[in-house]
Amino acid sequence: MGKQMTEMLKGTLEGVVLAILALRPAYGYEITSWLREQGFSDIAEGTVYALLVRIEQRGLVDVEKVPSEKGPPRKVYSLNARGHAQLEEFWATWSFLAERLEGLHQGGK
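User: That's the sequence. What structure does it adopt?
Assistant: Structure tokens below.
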């Protein structure tokens, strides 16, 4: 990923993670793996874990500790009502920006 892509992803990563969690509950490594499979190869696990801590502190997710076959229990995150509301706001903002950027891309139409 180039520097511009990295900077743009920083601004949208919370929304991306909330969208992933809207599909199904997941733990940090699963989220990081999915992002990498989607082409975000430079995403660091630490970045995702720090984001998960922030969205947990803001009350956007519910957390369940699930036993792990290897090591300590995993924290599985699921989107709660506040998280769904935040995700809807993210998509509305995304649509607004995408429409305007596409207009600029098409020559200001």
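The chain has one domain: 3-105.
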